[in-house]
Design a protein that fits this description.
Length: about 375
């Protein structure tokens, strides 16, 4: 059977370089190079509302922003199904059924959930944790299984979520009938691409921390952000030996720089290893390596900006893409939902045997 691939993002803001290297590039590669049955990309607005319930307009306003980012990096609506989570009615129904297959303590032990509760500052002794947020691993399992996705490209921070989905699949298939497909997580091969650090040196590029380079940043903004990047505090003078470890500029170069970039923008060095060796020895300033990184990232982001501008001038087309995608997503999810309800024995009106079974039960009572 051909692969069914599902991935997506929360519409809480514009997408950034962390999204690009962590998932978007891989989605484009899959779309263009692999043979698959379906590639589905979900705009997870329902999940975004679990911790933005006080600011629903933030989610609403970013649905088309995220779609624009998808299209601008090269995802093609002729090859990829884009849909909005809240517009697929089978998903919350499946979530409700799966809630009976996992305990609340198990969900709250999920490392991803624990980390995000801490990041968002939920106070369990005051307002508490919203139930929707605490149980969103179950919702995510519904998203994956509704389309029988067997491949789920994610960042490494999402691996516990896929493991929880696998547990739910196993529990359902063992309890009822083997209907659900077991998903496999796929993470970026380049370890540093899995969680690109922020420009401030923070371990993660995050919209909430304000340390992102966005796909929409213009050339001037990009240069300003790169110039502010954390490097080596001990590398004060150009002749001082520099340190690579923890130097964010070199972390980005590990992810983005190729030998072709050296040939084009920094021909005095053969490759990244030679550049690193010079920096560590001393005699190479931060300004030069930041200029090199700028040239590479500007080459990456310029065509993305151009393509985005083309789609921004045809907003009606964006809504049409999403409506078509939601129609197809509903067809696929409803098919799975029917199989799930049949397996659980709750398709009462469509089940031809249900009434006969009840009649037989009562006829035995009379006898």
């Amino acid at each position: 059977m051909k692969n069914i691939i599902l991935t997506g993002d929360r519409p809480t803001g514009r997408l950034h370089l962390g999204h690009y290297v962590g998932s978007l590039k891989e989605r484009v590669r899959i779309q263009n190079e692999e043979d698959y049955a379906y590639l589905l990309v979900m705009i997870a607005d329902t999940q975004a509302l679990t911790d933005n319930y006080g600011n629903p307009m933030k989610v609403r306003d970013n649905v088309l922003e995220v779609l624009l980012d998808y299209l601008s990096v090269g995802l093609d609506p002729q090859k990829t199904i884009f849909f909005i989570q809240s517009q697929v009615s089978a998903l919350p129904e499946l979530t409700a059924y799966y809630m009976n297959l996992v305990s609340l303590p198990r969900v709250l032990r999920n490392p991803t959930v624990k980390n995000e509760i801490k990041e968002r500052g939920f106070d369990s002794e005051k307002e508490g944790i919203p139930v929707g947020f605490a149980t969103y691993p179950i919702s995510q399992a519904a998203d994956i299984t509704a389309f029988k996705a067997n491949i789920v490209p994610v960042g490494d921070d999402q691996l516990p979520m896929i493991e929880q989905a696998r547990e739910i699949v196993k529990a359902f298939n063992n309890t009822y009938k083997e209907v659900l497909v077991m998903p496999e997580a796929v993470i970026p091969q380049n370890e540093k691409s899995r969680r690109l650090p922020g420009i401030d040196g923070n371990a993660k590029m995050s919209k909430s921390l304000g340390n992102c380079i966005y796909l929409t940043d213009d050339a001037k903004t990009l240069k300003e952000k790169i110039n502010k990047m954390y490097t080596d505090p001990l590398h004060i003078n150009i002749n001082d030996p520099g340190h690579i470890e923890g130097n964010i500029v070199f972390t980005y170069l590990d992810v983005f720089a190729t030998n072709a970039h050296f040939k084009k923008y920094l021909p005095e060095y053969k490759d990244l290893e030679e550049l690193k060796a010079h920096y560590q020895k001393g005699g190479l300033g931060d300004a030069k390596i930041k200029k090199f990184l700028y040239d590479i990232l500007e080459e990456t982001l310029e065509p993305i900006r151009i393509k985005r501008k083309e789609y921004e001038e045809n907003m009606d087309k964006l809504l049409e893409i999403l409506k078509d995608g939601c129609t197809k997503a509903n067809e696929l999810a409803n098919s799975t939902l029917k199989e799930v309800k049949d397996a659980m024995g709750i398709s009462y009106f469509a089940d031809k045997n249900f009434l006969d079974e009840q009649k037989l039960k009562y006829s035995k009572k009379e006898n």
